[in-house]
Amino acid sequence: DAGVIQSPRHEVTEMGQEVTLRCKPISGHNSLFWYRQTMMRGLELLIYFNNNVPIDDSGMPEDRFSAKMPNASFSTLKIQPSEPRDSAVYFCASWRTGEETQYFGPGTRLLVL
Amino acid sequence: SQQGEEDPQALSIQEGENATMNCSYKTSINNLQWYRQNSGRGLVHLILIRSNEREKHSGRLRVTLDTSKKSSSLLITASRAADTASYFCATEQGGSEKLVFGKGTKLTVNP
After folding, report:
1. In which band, very low, low, confident or very high, does the pLDDT at B93 lie, cut at 50, 70 and 90?
2. What is the torsion angle, in degrees rounded to the nearest 10, for the CA atoms of residue B43, residue B46, residue B49 and residue B55?
3. Which residue of B has its CA nearest to A106?
4. Which of A2, B18, B28, B57 is exposed most, by the fewest CB atoms within 10 A?
5. A9, A63, A53, A46: which is closest to A31 by C-alpha?
6. For B55-75, how does the pLDDT look when each residue is reduced to its tens digit (9 = 90+)?
């Protein structure tokens, strides 16, 4: 298995632009998680889905952030409009019920200028 | 909010020495997990210890859990330069697959 796939790996954009991050979970996994990692706040859970349904979005910072999971093999995290304080590494992870671990993707490093 | 808090924030040792990292948490948990993150990479699961377990081993890793003190420790024995990474504890609370991560311990193993 290729593992969790995220794209793009790096993104540089200007303040005010829309940013879309993509994630393909491991086949057969039924939960998907979006995390954000910064030096100041560490690794924070933004939102997670179970069977494509958003379960907990309490970590989504504000209305500028939205996430979708239209099917079991694809999810997006969108920031519109982006701000410099959104600069971070965004990780996607997937998990299958009964397994011990979440499997993390390589992350998307976002820089908003 | 951060559930797990690792201690120390940074640790530098020589190859061959043992490294001990600690994690404290605040609420009741189902299990506690340790992950490793190499610079610029995603997190990799190392070991999980359930709330009814006190100690667990995996290769050179030893994890302890003290639920009365709400703390856990990760011991890496006979460290290698390749163990250089950040180590995070994560707690899973009741009825949810949601994990809450600490801020991590940055371990440097000098050759």
Report:
1. confident
2. -140
3. B42
4. A2
5. A53
6. 999 999 999 999 999 999 999
